[in-house]
Amino acid sequence: MLLVSVQFILAIGGKIRMKKSYSLLAAVLLAGSVSGFLASKAQAADKDGFVTENGVTVYYENGKLVHGQKRIAGKWYLFDEQTGAMQTGFQKLTSPKKTVYYDAKGRMLYGKHKIAGYWYWFEDKSGKMKTGLQTVTKISYKTAYKWVKKRGKLVKKKYKKKTKSKYKLYYAANGQLQYGEKKIKGKWYYFNKKNAHMTTGLQTVGKAKKYYAANGQRQTGYQKIKGKGCYFGKKNGAMYVKKFAFVGGRDYYALASGVLHAPTWHSQFTPIWAPEGCSVASSATLLSIKNKSFNMYYAYSHLPQSGGVFSMASFGGLLAASTLTSYMKRFDSGFTNITGSSVAKIKAVVQSGHPVLYYGFSRYETRFYRKQHAKVIVGCKKGRFLIYDPCYYSARSGSSHRNAFDYGAKAWVSIATFTREATGGLNNGAIMLK
């Protein structure tokens, strides 16, 4: 409107040139801009503290927009370096380098907090999110009593007894508290499902039982728990249950309880006199690894052996291994005929925890061609087999040196000697228990 008026006057008067109208206009506009700038600056100078602008919370200090980290009324906040917008949630700081968390009001959190269903722990002083194994010291008080002297008499005084306990927690790289079995620096640990405390001892993990030492690390192989031997798988640490195990050079079977059970030596002479019953006595030794037994008299009496087992005079020869296997299956289906296996194969079977019944020679024999005696291999170590022979009255009986294969009731025998006894000739036999 001002521009129109000036131009109109100039047009009528003709004394002032048109270009002067532009100079006047510029002056007017400049004056307006300066006035607006000063007004805006004055308005900004009036701002202080938290302000919401266009739906974004910012912070002014002495009229200046704050950026970066700022301590306000004892609380730490973070404002965007460019826009000044107040930050919330997880934030990665570069100086100092750490991950922290700001709540909905922009305040940095400290201590333990549950966020979106997960527990996190932030250092009390720096707010830094913790990761990895953390040791927690818990202080508790309980009522206790002590005797004190009062006026020359002993009286019971109640007081609060302070106790300290420590436990460990594990926070993953993302800061979340972990539960269950976790692998940390190549070692497995277990954090219980209730409070996430690192737990030791025998624990049920899924469907398996596993064992964790005092330092929390999962154990494998042979372990002694409350005086009982147990075995835990090398790959997953699961306790063996109803499985064969080879420990310290000897064969064992893990019972339903997980406790390892070794074979029991049996005699063909006592408590039942069966001088030709070596196959039944050795089968009883084989089956005993499962902590199972059968009626020995019944087994002796019904064995389909020529001449029976109760008389040496009528003995007609040892049963073929296939026939003995079929007969013993009535007591346990695990009896398996492996006759024809190489010595290396038999060694491998024994080293997998399975004892092996084999045919050889008794201490009474003088001819070494047809095998007429059954023994059991129950261990293997340093090139030797541990052999149980039923042809003795006591488990402590040693060799009587009647022949080269008179080892005694229990003896470590070189595999070379075993090979000479068990291979070649007639009526070879080998039976394992599955």
The end-to-end distance, rounded to whole angstroms, is 110 Å
Instruction: Give the CATH level 1 class of the largest domain.
Output: Alpha Beta
Helix-strand category: alpha+beta
Please identify, by name, the CATH architecture of the largest domain. Alpha-Beta Complex
- Count of separate structural domains: 4
Order of strands, widest sheet? 21-26-22-23-24-25
> What are the segments in which pLDDT stays under 50 over at least 5 consecutive residues?
1-32, 36-40
What is the approximate shape? elongated
Mean pLDDT: 90
Give the tally of β-strands: 26
- Please bin the fraction of helical residues: 10-25%
Number of helices: 7
CATH superfamily of the largest domain: Cysteine proteinases
Profile the largest sheet: 6 strands, antiparallel
What portion of the residues fall into strands of 2 or more residues?
A: 35-45%
Could you characterize the architecture of this molecule?
- The N and C termini lie far apart (110 Å).
- This protein is an alpha+beta fold and 434 residues long.
- The strands form 10 sheets. It has a 6-stranded antiparallel beta sheet with strand order 21-26-22-23-24-25, with helices on both faces. A 3-stranded antiparallel beta sheet has the order 1-2-3, with no helix packed on it. A 3-stranded antiparallel beta sheet has the order 18-19-20, with no helix packed on it.
- It has helices at residues 2-13, 19-45, 278-288, 296-302, 321-328, 343-350, 415-422, and strands at residues 49-53, 56-61, 64-65, 68-72, 75-79, 89-94, 97-102, 111-115, 118-122, 132-150, 153-171, 180-184, 187-191, 201-205, 208-212, 221-225, 228-232, 243-247, 250-254, 260-261, 335-337, 356-360, 373-381, 384-388, 410-414, 430-433.
- Helices cover 19% and strands 36% of the residues.
- Mean pLDDT is 90; it is low at 1-32 and 36-40.
- A hairpin with a 5-residue loop joins strand 19 and strand 20.
- It contains 7 helices and 26 strands.
- It folds into 4 domains: 55-130, Cholin Binding (left handed beta-beta-3-solenoid); 132-186, no CATH class; 187-261, Ribbon (left handed beta-beta-3-solenoid), CATH 2.10.270.10; 277-433, Cathepsin B, Chain A (Alpha-Beta Complex), CATH 3.90.70.
